[in-house]
From TrEMBL:
Lineage, highest ranks first: Bacteria, Pseudomonadati, Pseudomonadota, Alphaproteobacteria, Sphingomonadales
Domain of life of the native organism: Bacteria
Keyword NAD: no
Name this protein carries in UniProt: DUF1838 domain-containing protein
TM region positions: none
InterPro entries membership: DUF1838 (IPR014990), TAT_signal (IPR006311)
Annotated signal sequence range: 1-27
Pfam families reported for this sequence: DUF1838
UniProt KW Flavoprotein keyword: no
UniProt entry keywords in alphabetical sequence: Signal
Amino acid sequence: MSGIDRRGALGLIGVGALAAAAPPAAAARTLDVQSPAGKLLAYILMRGALDERLVISYISGCYFGVVDSEVTPLWDVIGVTFTRYRARADGGFDVFSGEIAHFLDPKTGEAPGEFLIPYTGKIAKDPRTNLPPSRYAILPDLQLQFSRVLPGMVSDHHVRDPEVRGDDIWFTDVTRTQAPIPGAPKPFRYSETVSMHARVSDLLKPGVKRVPAESNFTNFVDWRPWMNMAGHPGHLSAVGNGRFGVTMADLPERWTKATREKWPEILENPGGLLDPIYKPA
């Protein structure tokens, strides 16, 4: 791998948190996740890959409306991301990423394209669109650098220091964004936390390029414009869980069915989603 000396990152950067946590068979190898290089390496192994393979990940959860601290179930959500990681000369990674997400009826499992909004008693049309694929960089200090942002968009991203207990390691990303909406009196805000969990023993395996990782997420987001809830107090919130680095066969069947109906080409060639922004090195 370019940009990070693998011998230094995995073996010679000092005895850190993972050295104490690793099982005896892996004790000869250490990964100091308190050092910038060790933290970055563990993060990429869990979230992406050290090579440019297609990394498929998903989150499955549910959305609620929140008004006066009271939650009202609204719809389910399954989002699947397709990413490739490329090592940079500065030690960071370029990330090429695209997502296909569906809002689903919790009772039928279908993506109906419309939902009854309980606060207004009206049917709102879900446009069933996804943002185009994007490219950004994960810098050596785990800050994000976007190659292109929407005019007026403000984003803050922070990776909390990893937590290690026994053979378990967790990373948590905290992201806050806001962007102006034409004609709206205030910007649209979206905030989320995503936690990743993996095994220390997996991170310490010689030659490993990525490791199995589980995820949990929580978000807080303004009413989506298509809900026609402008001026109504409250906001949306969602919770869910999933995995990083799975196969297409591992994805939730509800997502596969909805994608087959709307974007069948993704199932035939999932990597094709990134073709507009990614070319092999």
